[in-house]
Amino acid sequence: MHNFLILLLATLAWGASFHLAAQDIHIVPRPQEVVVGEGSFTLDGGIPIRAGAQSEAAARVLQDAIGERTGIRLAIGGNAGSRAPAVKFEVDETLGQEAYRLIVGGEGIELLASGGAGWFYGVQSLLQLLPETDHSVESFQLPAVTISDAPRFAWRAFMLDEGRFFKGSEQVKLLLDEMAHLKMNVFHWHLVDDQGWRIEIKKYPLLTEVGGKRKSSQVGPLKWDSPIQSAEPHEGFYTQDEIREIVAYAAARHITVVPEIEMPGHSSAAIAAYPWLGTAKQKIEVPIWFGVSQDVYDVSDPKVVRFLTDVLDEVVSLFPSRVIHIGGDEVKYDHWKSSPTVREYMANNGLDTPAELQVFFTNGISRYLESKGRRMMGWNEIMGHNLHDYQDTADTESDQELASSTIVHFWKGDPELATRAAENGFEIVNSLHSRTYLDYSYESIPLSEAYAFDPVPKELDPSYHDNIIGTGCQMWGEWIPTDGQMHFLVFPRIAAYAEVGWTEKEHKSFEAFKAALPRLQQRWISKGIYYAPDAVVEKQAAGN
Questions:
Q1: Residue 126 · residue 102 · CB < 8 Å
Q2: Overall fold of domain 155-505
Q3: Which top CATH class is 15-149?
Q4: Contact assessment for residue 259 and residue 238, using Cβ atoms and an 8 Å cutoff
Q5: pTM across the whole model
Q6: Quick check: bond before 492 cis, omega within 30?
Q7: Is 330 a residue of the active site?
Q8: Lowest mean pLDDT across 24-28, 85-89, 326-330, 409-413
Q9: Are 466 and 449 in contact (CB under 8 A)?
């Protein structure tokens, strides 16, 4: 009798049916519309998945995820005309490119979309309805529900800066997986900076051989003022084959990889490799201190401009992204002002200030990218904005007009600058540093503040709202030498920013978001992500 009871209990534990109550429907980012019905649907191994050629990739994502989570391996196939219960992927041409409709009823599950992205995002929502179980089950129940959903913004980005600390493919893929689960669609990859060059350029091998290494790194705890060095070399870069692999990995998750190749500033690593690139034409080392560059590209030198277009040629061949980010921030104009050749170049081209020179140069890069079928994006200094105390106000005066096709990445300055740019017809990605920078502490940007960010400036007339195409959250790398430090700062705030980008303001709820976090945290634990605990983000938020 005793052995029979043990066997019975084991069988029940193995073959139990799990039920998710309607009140437990928590999906991040929060859908635009959720209508809970009556009853439920029982999913077991006998339920097939029916998908067409367009939806088969999303169907396989669902098949694999259900198998991993529950042990149930659903078959893809079956009679398309059958009315028997099934998980059906169906085409609805009335839905937008990333929109989906998910219907769970007593007769099965329907996922409707007009293309791959919509089905993929519907799958991500369906997976968040699955019950939590750490072992195989024979079946589980899902509540009857209809979800109609589409993103608020087209550009929903996460940025990783690897110019400062190289992370490698494994961490990048981990981040891409979490972005995909949260319906984020742009991986902004900051691959070069003063302290490191992380992308192989075959025509200029010293960029990685020299520029991809530094002999030490500034470390905390005082951060920017810290006199402490690690006394440990740091190096790393991605080969072009590795780049292609990551781009393909992202594409399979409906994420576009947008590379950032800094110019004309933040260029010390490149100048260390090839001193003739700099304004001073002097040999330097890859900086071991963080902060603004020791030198900038000499944009008056045709050989330097050719170098930059050569680099962009290889970048364009690696990244299918329609948009290429050229940085353009924090260019110290003193370097140009001290150069006789640069001053002569400015005079010959009717350029009165360094800001005009930067816009003139940037427009040339824009034309070059357009000749390659691409579009330029840059931080808002590329408009000639005066954002920094170290610049003389007179140096930032400009009557040069930035190329109208430019996407302006707003990060610093009076929000009126973003409003004015939008009113002038520019498309804007709003990543205001005080609200979206992940290197900032939870005391500076608590979870509640991250969640409350609205990319559309309050003063912007509604007729220009469509010019705000989205937002991004930025993980700058100066103070994240370890993966764990990065995890702590990124998670859980990345989930808040995902909802900022996806969910319409009137449908957002911070209380509902917090209620959904435990499910995400369990996912992160299973993947070895060391997120910031609730006590940290809530304590800091309360004291903010």
A1: yes
A2: TIM Barrel (3.20.20)
A3: alpha beta
A4: no
A5: 0.94
A6: yes
A7: yes
A8: 24-28
A9: no
